[in-house]
Automatic annotation (TrEMBL), chain A:
Gene3D superfamilies assigned: P-loop containing nucleotide triphosphate hydrolases (3.40.50.300)
GO terms for biological process, alphabetical: response to antibiotic
UniProt keyword list: Antibiotic resistance, ATP-binding, Nucleotide-binding, Transport
Originating species: Acrocarpospora macrocephala
Localization of this protein: Cell membrane
Pfam families assigned to the protein according to its UniProt record, in alphabetical order: ABC_tran
GO annotations of cellular component type: plasma membrane
Full protein name: ABC transporter ATP-binding protein
From TrEMBL, chain B:
Location within or outside the cell: Cell membrane; Membrane
Family statement: Belongs to the ABC-2 integral membrane protein family.
Record-linked InterPro entries: ABC2_TM, ABC2_TM_bact-type, ABC_2_transport, T7SS_ABC-Transporter
Name assigned to this protein: Transport permease protein
Keyword check for Cell division: no
Entry's transmembrane regions: 21-41, 53-74, 95-120, 126-154, 166-187, 216-238
Alphabetic keyword roster: Antibiotic resistance, Cell membrane, Membrane, Transmembrane, Transmembrane helix, Transport
Any one GO cellular component localisation term in the record: ATP-binding cassette (ABC) transporter complex
GO biological process entries: response to antibiotic
Principal subcellular localization: membrane
Amino acid sequence: MIHAIGLTKTFETRKGAVEAVRGVRIEVAEGEIVAFLGPNGAGKTTTMRLLTTLLKPTSGTATIAGHDLFADPTGVRRRIGYVAQGATVSPMGYVGEDLEVQARLYGLRPAEARARVREVLAQLDLTGVEQRVAGSLSGGQRRRVDIAMGLLHRPALLFLDEPTTGLDPQSRANLWGHIRRLRDDEGVTVFFSTHYLDEADALCDRVLIIDHGRIVTEGTPAQLKAGIGPDATLDDVFLTVTGRELREEAVA
Amino acid sequence: MSPSALILARYYLRATFRSKFAILFTAIQPILFLVLFGPLFDRSGVGSWGALVPGLLIQLALMSAGLAGFGIVLDQRFGVLERLRVTPASRTSLLLGRVLKDSVVLLVQAVLVITLGYAFGLRAPAGGVLLGLALIVMLAVGLASFSYAVALTIDQELFPPLMSTALVPLMLLSGALLPMSLAPAWLDVLSRLTPFRYVVEALRSLFTGSYTSAEVGWGVLVSVLFLLVGVLLGTRLFQRENA
């Protein structure tokens, strides 16, 4: 589903070139849920933005959801959903209307768009919020609206950038359930970044850890923990490969 | 016109017309000039309503379409722009959807100002007014595109003060409030270097019923050039950094 080799991104800044991503290789199979971990500034969000056509890679090759990232970014856009970090909807916007417009941009006709919006809202336990403005929803509801935006066109691959940051534990667990069901019931491949190792542990089939713009380790949570020692946790894995605690980063 | 641009334009229009107060508020400056300055201007011997109303329309275009970029600053802040950029909608339609909305809003405001002008004593032929509105819409497309280009380039916080400051000299130099025929030579030269002077003069000519004057020709030429440059620049910035 994701097949990227030697992907790099160099930003030209006033202080010179900054290599944010230095040749990452990412392979994700259809139907996998993959967690993408890394300390702040390690290149997580930049990599996500490269894979979702929002940034042009400096070099490398990538096929995303069956389309070449360089030759056919529009083809990639048609097949992926991307839920960015933080907000994706205006607090003044009406949820139903905003979702409908989003669906129409993917080519759905008005009646189809309305039906699909109802369907996705029901799927995410959001029935009845169509007439409300996003600003009046709870944090958990709003995050689910963000995810609904990314699902309207039935993407084969969903990118979630820190989907549960800022949510209370209950909303987080609730969102995990939704993400798991997306894969189990609809076969959606999910690639998500997170600051919470318990989240990665609970949700994913496989972990990728990025640091200083390079993938420093990858494997199933069980493999990675076994590589460190008996009773090791993902925190121990993270600490070993990056030399840093993820939790401190999450607070910072 | 791509369907995405129309879908977005309709969406933005619905949102804008939900707040009718905001539409009136953007037009408040030209309306105040019309009501509180117009009667003086008309009796000053400098010019009549037919000279003032075209100037106020340019002032309106600068304040309304010229400041349109502010809308995208909010879209950027709330992550809306990024979300739209991951859809298959073409980058040009992301720009044109907004620009179409701005043009319709400006058209509504311009009709309001012209109607008020008639109530005060403007006597312009209907044909001239319609052609004038067409010219204003062309100018609005260019101005709004340019405004988005600036908003996407500079610091978010800088946009409102910078843009509103830049628009004041452009408005004054266009001769919108007092005809540039009164200006000393240096000011006249400076004014000829700014685009909006040609549009004001074209509008004044149209409002007097002379549709084939040199002024009209220059005004149309400048508006078309401005439109092309604005849309090209705006599209390029919407495309920037995209794969």
